[in-house]
Structures are given as structure tokens and as C-alpha cells.
Amino acid sequence: MRLTPGHRHCGSAGAVLGIAALAGWLGGCTSGQYYAAKLPPELAAPAVENMEAIDLSHLVHNPTNSDGIDRGDVLDVSMVTNYSTLTSTTTPVRVADNGTADVPLIGPVAVAGLDVEAAERAIAAAAVNRGIFQKPYITVALGKPRSNRITVIGAVKAPGVYSLPRGSCSLLAALVAAGGLVEESGPDVEIRHSAAGLLAGAGTPPPAVPQAVRVDLAKAAAEGDRQYPVFDGDVVLVRRRVLKPIYVLGLVQKPGEYHLPANQNLQVLDALAMAGDRSTQLADKVVVIRRLPGRPEPALIELSVREAKSNGRANLRLAPGDIVSVEDTPITAVARACTDVLRFSVGGAWTVF
To answer: What is the mean pLDDT of residues 159-166?
Structure first.
């Protein structure tokens, strides 16, 4: 497992003693003692979602027809009205918010939602029905499709304001335009719809569409059964994943505070490795002090290092804020005492008679 090298190590003795005092206080008022290999599911640490492995292609919003005409589009309308000279005129016409294009000489024609061929027929029919031309020849080209301006902020590589084609304006398109997610990105995304965007995107403000939509990217990518369109003026906020650090103390080489990796689970053996391993290989008992949501007192979860190496269930997955303590036992106490005596014997000035 790849470990995150960056951490903040409490090097001072005072900091370590402060953490140890906290652990002692928590150990005196706990909600119960458990064993890692038989831990109840409600006490287990939640698995970390690996945002780098999520398939965001399931968030694709079905694009509209590329030839479809929408409000705000600019059309190039060409008309041939004199077949003897084949005189033609081409005029740019913008589609109004009510879905009509005000064609010169002919007047307003409803074209929003039509493709260009249907729009040609609609404009020609309006010219004949209104007595303007008897047999006009009309061609329509989509000159400049209207785009939506979307603001993307938060945990993305390139926050900013982006113009996206209205026909394919989706949450995924906005994330791609902003360079994608960063390592610290969490699954929580919020789409803040603007009132003007909802009006332009749906014609009328639909009561079923809230002003803000929260999306769990991991869940949405797994289900893949919903679309997440974004409209002009919307803001997409990708929240950062803020994780409380863990504390490793007791019989380890470098007791202190360590940051959890962003996109992977951290287990007890990983935490011990981050702390430089145990200060003595005889230390086998580990106690994890875990705060539980909705419970005023923490739980003590005990495990064996030897068992954790051979049994994956005993290698407890850690939660943000956990305190990992490698405990002193009678065996380690005797070993430490022997080491101290030996060190004193070798370094001291004993007189032998």
C-alpha cells in the first residue's frame, strides 16, 4: 500500500506527553472495549472513496441534436425570392427568449426546438401564408450556437468560468473544462442553479428543480441513472475532503500526529510504519481509541500486531481522529528493565573483587 510521506510529527516531549495524557483520559471513560477481529459493523471506520478510480463517464448528460435550434442561437437565414435572377440575401437572425426568429420581411417564426431543415420549412410556410412570397427558397445555417457560462470552484485543477455549448452542458463537461478533480477532492459536489439559468434552460422556473442540487459523485457514478445538467450562470462547487489526523503513540519510534491519505484506506500496520515501527518488537498489544458519532464516550478497540499480520480483519481500518497506542505490557516492561540494566552495566564503573 502506498503511504503518504507528508505528515506532521510531534517531535517535542511535551507534545507526546499531551497526546498520551489525552489517551489516558479517554481510556478512563469509554463506551466499551472491543476486539478488532470481531468489531461490530456500526463501529467500523467508513471506507475511503478513491476519487481517482471513479468512472465519471456515467455522469454524461444526453446532448441535444447538434443541429437543434435553441434560444439565443444566431441563425444565418438565406432567401431566394427571384428565380429569374436567382437573387439571394443572407441575414443573421438571433432566436429570442420566446423561441421565435424575427426573419426580415417575413416576421417572427417559431423555430426553437427545430432542426435546421424543419426551420427552413417553417420560415417558407410563414412567408407563403402571410402572402409575402409565393415560392421562396429558404436555407438556414446555425451560425453561432449559444453557450452557457459556468463557474467551477473548489477542489478542481483549474477553477474558473467556462463557456460550454448549451446542447452538451453537463456536470461532467464542467468538471472536464476545469481540468478534473484534484487529489483532495471529496465526493460531495453542489450545483447552485441561478434563477436566470433555470428560466433559460427550462422555459419557466420548474418547481421540481431546486436552486441547489447536491451530488455524491461516487454514488452517482455507480448508479448512472440520473442526469445532471447545468445552466447559464450556474456555479459548480467541488468540496475538499478534510480529514482529521490520527495520533500514534506509545512504544513507537516516532510518536505524533499523522495525516490520513486522501484516496486510500489506512490500517493499523500502515500507521505503525508511518511512525517508524515499534520501539521494541516485543510490543504486540495495540489499542485504538475511537470517537463515535452520537456517542459521548469513545470506544477502545484492541488488537494484536502478530494477528494483524496474519489476519486481515484484525488489521483494523482507521477512521479520522483515531488514536493508536502501542501498549506497554509486563513482557515489554521486563525487556525494557533488562535493557536498562545492561546499558548501565556496560556504561557504569563497577568494581569487580
So the answer is: 90
The single-letter code of the amino acid at 126 is A
**Rounded to an integer, what distance in angstroms lies between the CA atom of residue 140 and that of residue 320?**
60
CB 198 within 8 A of CB 213: no
Q: How many CB atoms lie within 10 A of CB 190?
A: 15
Regarding beta strands 147-154 and 235-240, do their DSSP bridges make them parallel or antiparallel, or are they unpaired? Answer: parallel
Q: Given CA atoms 248, 253, 258, 260 in this order, what sign does their dihedral have? A: negative
CATH topology of domain 13-48+244-344: Outer membrane lipoprotein wza fold like (3.10.560)
Under the banding of pLDDT at 50, 70 and 90, the label for residue 56 is: confident
pLDDT of 311: 87
Parallel, antiparallel, or unpaired: how do β-strands 285-290 and 160-165 relate?
unpaired
240 by Cβ neighbours in 10 Å (0-12 / 13-18 / 19+) ranks as middle
Q: What is the mean pLDDT of residues 258-274?
A: 91
Pick the CATH number of 52-64+148-240 from 3.30.360.10, 3.10.560.10, 3.40.50.300, 3.40.250.10: 3.10.560.10
The Cα 15–Cα 307 span in angstroms is: 30
Average pLDDT over residues 317-332: 93
State the average pLDDT over residues 268-291: 94
Q: Which phi and psi (to 5°) does residue 202 adopt?
A: -120, 0
- Arithmetic mean of pLDDT over the chain: 81
C-alpha grid cell, residue 350: 563497577
Mean pLDDT, range 18-42, rounded to an integer: 65
Of the CATH numbers 3.40.50.2300, 3.30.1950.10, 1.10.150.80, 3.40.50.720, which one belongs to the domain with range 74-144? 3.30.1950.10
198-243 pLDDT tens trace: 555 544 444 455 588 899 888 888 777 677 888 889 999 999 988 8
The ranges of the chain annotated as CATH 3.10.560.10 are 13-48+244-344, 52-64+148-240
Please check whether residue 273 is in contact with residue 349, taking contact to mean a CB–CB distance below 8 angstroms: no
| Count of beta carbons in the 10 Å neighbourhood of residue 336 | 16
